[in-house]
């Protein structure tokens, strides 16, 4: 099966903003230093001033540069406060998507452990309901991807830490297309569907028993196997 292109190619604005940021991160443009004028940057990049203006505006929104009236645009030195962003345009290869899976594995394992340690009765009921919804969706001919996302979010919610939930939502958005590919492959292989169900059940069982280490390990196994299934779907 050919792996689908997950995102549209980067725009000129994306490319210019990324290269400007790379120059700043590499220290070739220091904090407090003024950027070249729009005209000069347009000449250097071979693009219009409109593209430069949009790229600089993006950096300004992230607090990386600031405009000083009558003086120009300067690097702020506050790059560490920038908003977290993953360049979706780069996620058009299997290797790139697997990097996101690795990131999600690190997150999901701790989420499962924290959910086991802190979940309440209502949390457990919500997790059970979310797990059942996946099976129902698949039995009704769906791929269960939306329900799968809801299942993992129910576990994140059970941690009691809203930042786990927010971070998981941020990372997971970049994997939805890839997940649909693996689900399509799993649908043709009943043994894989059963394996996914068993992995989910192992996570839920550990959370129910409030065994944090078992939950962490079950989540790790699930994400490792998810990466394997993604590779198989790519063949």
UniProtKB/TrEMBL annotation:
GO molecular function list: DNA binding; DNA-binding transcription factor activity
Annotated keywords: DNA-binding, Transcription, Transcription regulation
N-terminal signal peptide: none
Domain HTH gntR-type residue range list: 10-78
A Pfam family this chain is assigned to: GntR
InterPro entries (UniProt xref): GntR_C (IPR011711), TF_FadR/GntR_C (IPR008920), Tscrpt_reg_HTH_GntR (IPR000524), WH-like_DNA-bd_sf (IPR036388), WH_DNA-bd_sf (IPR036390)
PANTHER family documented for this protein: TRANSCRIPTIONAL REGULATOR, GNTR FAMILY, UXU OPERON TRANSCRIPTIONAL REGULATOR
Listed name of the protein: L-lactate dehydrogenase operon regulatory protein
Organism: Achromobacter pulmonis
Gene: lldR_1
